[in-house]
Amino acid sequence: MFSAEIVGAWIAVFLTLAIFSYLYRDNPFYKIAEHIFVGVSAGYWASMFFWTQIQPNLFGRLWPVLHEGQTLGFLGKIWYGVYNFFNLIYPPAFPDGGVATGHGMQLAYIIPLILGIMMLLSVFSKFSWFARWGIAYVVGMAAGLRSYGFLNSNVIGQVKGSVIPLVGDMSMGALINGIILLLGTIAGLMYFYFSKEHKGWFGTMGRVGIYFLMISFGASFGFAVMGRISLLIGRFTDLKSFGGAAYHHASLWILAVMVILLGIWSIFNKEEKINSTYVKQKRAFIFIMPFFVLRMWN
Fold this sequence. Notes:
The chain has nine helices and no strands. By secondary structure, it is an all-alpha fold.
């Protein structure tokens, strides 16, 4: 019997193996998984941003819920008449009486509403120039806010972290760490100073700065790789568990069907007929891969 859990396992196995099939070459299975991933991600984040940002923070400030006994003037009735029209179109986003998020009415939020509508007009070629206003506002505001944030968190924080005492009551390990931090900071800054030719002691310090930078980049890359390897191990673990009888051997069945279909697709693919040796190598890989996987499972 195929329950929702088993169906989900089969879908997960198919998508995982479809992504792994790119190791063979770009193929229809990989394209299917790629398009599903991009589409689902875009839809998920669009829905998430709408319900967590646009609906409470934008609509909640333009049309807040009306309190009992609150009266509206002529313009207010027209304004909430527009809201009632949206309420008829999509009541979940525009509930009766207004959006209850605890905000008061702030009509200044009409400006981001207009800019957002202008950005949506980019899908129409005749009105795509409207999107420049919204994009310019978003890029300018984001650049200003991020610059201020990075200045406080990275630049000033790095300067404060580099100013450490080298004398006083401290252990030998703390003293060595402080000297290494001071030397690495100065050497790294000297490497990026191009107003003076890197010769003599200045060039030596620049090369020392390169070593510190490479160590830093290597550690960051190694940390990122370890995270990706842990995800890869998790996928292999799931594939092995989904290959059991509890999931009707989903991994083995999907792998076998995918390998057979890839072999047929590779044989009839006109692009690969140009290099017969290349085709033979890929066919050999396709036929050997199932035996390797079965060996791994045993």
